């Protein structure tokens, strides 16, 4: 067992250099799909879902298998976790049986409790506050299309108090990007997230703009991103939310403000005609399906990297 176990709970858990190392590893793994076997044996990886999923479920299952491991996908309703058994007891059981714990849940605090009690890596597969695995895939996609990350400007429009907005902000500035977040008053990132992003930006040369002015956020942007206006768990607020964010849709009128060669990201699932218009998401600037595929490569890289950094596996390319 190791005392150096590394977890991936928020975008800030990787420094700029570490984020680059993970993205480099993802590129290598994309080129050599079956060449990395840190879970050879096969070792088992437990992947828990408290919320629904298509991409995260399939990309982790495929990625774990490609890394030589055996994915164990568990819907929370079919387990004791969080219902009949405490998170800390669950962690102490799981660490004796599996090599990594992946968890999609509501409260970030639950992931932190799992990590505090686990001697194997814990990965956040989406919480109410962050979606860091998605951002690794997004940054990999930007790098593929733009050749670089540092110095690019990235605008995110819409529900700017949700997990994707927080992750765009924190992962983007970690990469040295100029991140602009636009949403209505009351639906902007929390003060603590903005302060953390500004502190990270000061280290990397990135910058932060949080505004209610969508055009200001979009001005000359190299990357334009959005997300659903109704996140999982907010279904009761759907009607109100569809009105709230109307001025922050990514449509042809919005794209006029961005750079002519801007690329468009959306983590999916998308609601055409609401946060993004059909002509934009299905148009030539959209890279959303590259982004979806890159979930596999990025998550393989973070799983292998955490195993290597935790002294649980040797992985070529990780110091
Ligand atoms: N983008 C994403 O996490 O998709 P799923 O909810 O389908 O996993
Ligand atoms: N903000 C969305 C992301 C879905 C991948 C949600 O939490 O439902």
TrEMBL record:
SUPFAM superfamilies: Aspartate/ornithine carbamoyltransferase. Its EC number is 2.1.3.3. Carbamoyl phosphate binds at residues 53-56, 80, 104, 131-134, 267-268, 295. The keyword rRNA-binding does not apply. The keyword Aminoacyl-tRNA synthetase does not apply. Residues 151-306 form the Aspartate/ornithine carbamoyltransferase Asp/Orn-binding domain. InterPro entries: Asp/Orn_carbamoyltranf_P-bd, Asp/Orn_carbamoylTrfase, Asp/Orn_carbamoylTrfase_sf, Asp_carbamoyltransf_Asp/Orn-bd, Orn/put_carbamltrans, OTCase_ArgI. GO terms for molecular function: ornithine carbamoyltransferase activity. It catalyses: carbamoyl phosphate + L-ornithine = L-citrulline + phosphate + H(+). Keywords: Cytoplasm, Transferase. Residues 6-144 form the Aspartate/ornithine carbamoyltransferase carbamoyl-P binding domain. It is an enzyme of class 2 (transferase). Pathway: Amino-acid biosynthesis; L-arginine biosynthesis; L-arginine from L-ornithine and carbamoyl phosphate: step 1/3. L-ornithine binds at residues 163, 227, 231-232. It is found in: Cytoplasm. Belongs to the aspartate/ornithine carbamoyltransferase superfamily. OTCase family. HAMAP family: OTCase. PANTHER family: ORNITHINE CARBAMOYLTRANSFERASE, MITOCHONDRIAL, ORNITHINE TRANSCARBAMYLASE, MITOCHONDRIAL. This is Ornithine carbamoyltransferase. It comes from Paeniglutamicibacter kerguelensis. The lineage of its organism: Bacteria, Bacillati, Actinomycetota, Actinomycetes, Micrococcales.
